[in-house]
Amino acid sequence: MPHTSADFTRPWQRAAFPDLPAVDAHSALARWQRLHAGQGRFPPPASGVLAEGWAAFHAGDFERATHAGLHEGSACGLALADRAAAIYAAYLEPHEAMRLSLFRMVAERAGARAKSHADDVPAHYWYAYALGRYSQGVSVARALAQGLGDKVKGALERVVALDPLHADAQLALGTFHAEVIDKVGALVARMTYGARAEIAVEHFERALQLNPHSPNGPIEYAQGLHMLYGESRHAEATRLLERAAACAPADARERLDVEIARHKLASEH
């Protein structure tokens, strides 16, 4: 991945929603299963720095969460840092150079852990997530030509093999299959990458089964249907966006997803 120029001295934007309930370490740990339903078998930390860091993440202070995870330094801490930085870059960072730099940094950090710890599920997942988002930023077609697609797919398949209950990895695999088919066509996608529309749909459906309260799942599924089938599945995609828009968000990240779904629905009218 080529390096990009970015300003790391500028404060990160916060995702502040006054109507969401306040999150502290105690409430984050008490609601851990709901807040982390997409991440499979991901155990909560003990109270302390990491719990405070996760509280900052769920409250939308992704910069503080990233610093807390990096400062703590364990594999669990780095998983927090990776998630916070990647989600901030995906949702809130306004400058493309900074966004790509953050994705590259997360991919490099998580990828190094995945190489040295083959069973580290968060490392494989955040490597795939950051590399996939980076690929979208530089164009999926270009990323595929550079061989990044195989790396993303391999890492996500590793996550699902280690933890079949990892809803976010199922969702990301659905998106991978849909994007590859959208960019190179069904025949080349199937022959070169093993990407198939029916496999994409299976992954999307599995993700929604595993994490039915997430607004992100229906959004990604709706986008996948548009990539795979175009207008012929528009009504179904709209129903998925309506489902996402009606979700009760559990934290700031989910609230961002709800706002995205509402914006997409409004743009259709």
Gap from first CA to last CA: 39 Å
Portion of residues in beta strands equals under 5%
What's the tally of helices? 15
**What is the average of the pLDDT values?**
93
Major sheet size, sense and barrel closure: none
Total beta strands? 0
Shape: globular
Label the CATH architecture of the domain at 194-269: Alpha Horseshoe
CATH fold category name of the domain at 194-269: Serine Threonine Protein Phosphatase 5, Tetratricopeptide repeat
Radius of gyration: 18 Å
Helix content: over 70%
Broad CATH class of the domain at 194-269: Mainly Alpha
The assigned structural class equals mainly alpha
Low-confidence stretches: none
Written as H for each helix and E for each strand, in order along the chain, the element string is HHHHHHHHHHHHHHH
Outline of this structure?
This protein has 269 residues and is an all-alpha fold.
Secondary structure elements and pairings:
Elements: H1 25-30, H2 32-35, H3 49-58, H4 62-72, H5 75-91, H6 96-116, H7 121-138, H8 140-145, H9 148-162, H10 167-184, H11 186-193, H12 197-210, H13 216-229, H14 234-245, H15 252-267
Helix pairs in contact: 3-4, 3-5, 4-5, 5-6, 5-7, 6-7, 7-9, 9-10, 10-11, 10-12, 10-13, 12-13, 13-14, 14-15
Task: Describe this entry's structure for a reader.
The chain has a domain at 194-269: Serine Threonine Protein Phosphatase 5, Tetratricopeptide repeat. The model has no long low-confidence stretch (mean pLDDT 93). The protein is globular, with a radius of gyration of 18 Å. Helix 10 (167-184) crosses helix 11 (186-193). The protein is mostly helical and 269 residues long. 71% of the residues lie in helices and 0% in strands. It has helices at residues 25-30, 32-35, 49-58, 62-72, 75-91, 96-116, 121-138, 140-145, 148-162, 167-184, 186-193, 197-210, 216-229, 234-245, 252-267.
